[in-house]
Write a structure and sequence with these properties.
It is a multi-pass membrane protein. InterPro entries: Insect_Ionotropic_Sensory_Rcpt. It is found in: Cell membrane. By secondary structure, this protein is of the alpha/beta class. The protein has 4 domains: about 5-180, no CATH class; about 195-270, D-Maltodextrin-Binding Protein, domain 2; about 300-400; about 415-450, no CATH class. The protein is built from 13 helices and 15 strands. The protein has helices spanning about 5-15, 20-30, 70-80, 100-115, 225-235, 250-260, 305-310, 315-340, 350-365, 375-405, 415-420, 430-435, 440-445; strands spanning about 60-65, 90-95, 120-130, 145-150, 165-170, 175-180, 195-200, 210, 220, 235-240, 265-270, 300, 405-410, 425, 450. The strands form 5 sheets. It has a 6-stranded mixed sheet. A 3-stranded parallel sheet has the order 10-7-11, with helices on both faces. Helix 4 links the parallel strand 2 (about 90-95) and strand 3. Helix 8 packs across helix 9 (about 350-365), helix 8 runs antiparallel to helix 10 (about 375-405) and helix 9 (about 350-365) crosses helix 10 (about 375-405). The two termini are about 55 Å apart.
Amino acid sequence: MIYTEDQTQMEEARKFGYPDILNHLLKYISKQSDWPIHVTNTNEEKETFLYDSIYKSDCYIIFSLPDLEVLQEQMWDLVESAFWSNRAKFLLVIVGDHFEEPFQEVQTIIDRLWKYYKILDIVILIKIIGKDSIKTIQNRSMVRFDLYSWRPYQSNFQCADTKNILIEDTWNIDVGQFLKQTPLYTYQMPNQYHGCPLRVTAMELKPFLISHNNTERIEFSGYDQRIVHLVAQKMNMRIEYLETRPGNRIEIRMNALEDLLTGITDVICGGYVIHPAITPFADPTVSYTKNSVKWCVPCGTPIPRVKKISQIFKSDVWLMMGLQFILSVFAISWISDKMSRLREEEKTINIGSSVCTVLSIMIGVSIPKMPVSSAQRIIFIILIWYSFALSTVFQSLFTSILINPGVSNQIRLLEELIKSNLDYYYVQGSDEFMNFTSPTYYGQVKLKRN
């Protein structure tokens, strides 16, 4: 249910029993089926959707007044919904005014809905009153309800011509049923379109679309042209290339999208990308190639090997290794001095010999003199296993550092790029496309542009 905010038009709708009709209809539908019903109107607060729902509406029942502006307002509300689908079945009920010659009004409505919204499966219900009973509605025999529809692409002379209007059925008030009992929504689009024109707006973008100078007609080649040609050949349609309006790359594509929305063209091609900014307005084909946008940033500076070697262990590990070295030297020297006093012999290992001994153990070479006492041997064994564990880790990393010490200050994240204060060199078309499709992302990159 959708109706206008205009109070005058609302009063007119109430005069013809519009709210009562709607209440009876909703009550009947809720009793006869288990379908979920979503009731909306144009004067309520719009729902906000952060995504395009995958669950689309299968059918729409639209109550409108005999005013194209009102219908336009209603359709825009539907299109903005996340559940919108122009492939659904539509029943448009015109409430209010009478029509003596309804074909012109129905044709205008169908033409507008097909041109701007590409709605195909639509049935329009209109109340018809005979000329002799305009003032006396009580004459039931002169009042009827007609169901109108249309049949496009019947021949090469009737392609998407909205003049092909026909009456599907008529409701007989006296009998209380439709005269023909014709099933609705039975029309299927043909597989062959009888050579009807397929209007294509093509924008050159190599290698997707390449234009060729020809004084007689517009010709293209490339990936997109092959796809359009295969589609037209399969559907038996005739390709008609339309000229693009002047402008830069973004303006030309925006103008082409506008022409598609207003029904001037049927297909637009030329390196379009599947993007959330475009897909709500047009149906994309399946993507046949993938492109990615990458930032080209300067390489990081090489790290000095000495600095990289110093980073093999953390500072506290290096500190503990130095402390262990000093304690080991004094422990070996003290034990040697104590043992020489007990045996009244000359001291065998002095401070200099202790330093050479501990250093030899840590770097994995032979020591100048073997330990004599058991206490010295215990310290030596502990140092050997301790040094073996450290040297294994150190030597494995030391070899890789000598080969490739790595680089520093390499930009890997967008935050690092923003803080880098680098100059931004760009291609005009790519920069405009990024600004148009991702303005939030684009606005974060505040670099000096060259």
